[in-house]
Amino acid sequence: MFNELIVASQSVQALTSLLKAANSLANYNEIVAAVSDVNVKLMQSNAAALEAQQTMSQQSARIAELEKQVEAFEEWGEEAKAYGVIEVARGVFAAVPHERAGDLQATQKLCLNCFNQRTKSILQQSHEDQRQIGLTCHRCRAKVVFRYYADVV
Ligand SMILES: [Zn+2]
What we know:
Blueprint: H1 2-22, H2 28-80, E1 83-89, E2 92-97, H3 112-115, E3 124-128, E4 132-136, E5 143-146
Antiparallel strand pairs: 1-2, 3-4, 4-5
Helix pairs in contact: 1-2
C-alpha cells in the first residue's frame, strides 16, 4: 500500500514539474503532449489510490476476522479454565469440571481429543460386553472401554 502511495505522490510531483515546464513551451504540439502526459500520470495516480483503498479494505476485513478469532480464543480459554484433565479410569483421560459433585460415573466428562481442539464434546457412557463401561465421543468418534472408574474401590 505504501508503494502505491509513493507512486501516486511521485506522479503528482511529476505533474507539478510538467506544469512548470509548460510555461516555457513554445508550440501547441508540445503543450498537447505535456497535457496528455499529465493525464496519463493522473490516471496512474487514480489507479494507485484505488488499489491502495482496495488493499486497505481487504486488510480491514482480515483484521476484523482475526479479532473475532482472538475473541473466540479468549472465550474458550475462560471456559476451559473450569475443566481439568484427570484419569477417569486406568489409562483413560478426560476433561472434567474442577467443581463436581458426585462420583466420576455421574460427572460430565469431555472428550480430550475434542477439548484439545477447543471444542466441548460430552462423552456418552454405554454398557459394553462383560460388564465393561464405554465412553464415546460422538463428535470425533473416539471410544474407550474399561472396567471400573478410578474412584470405584
Ligand atoms: Zn471427541
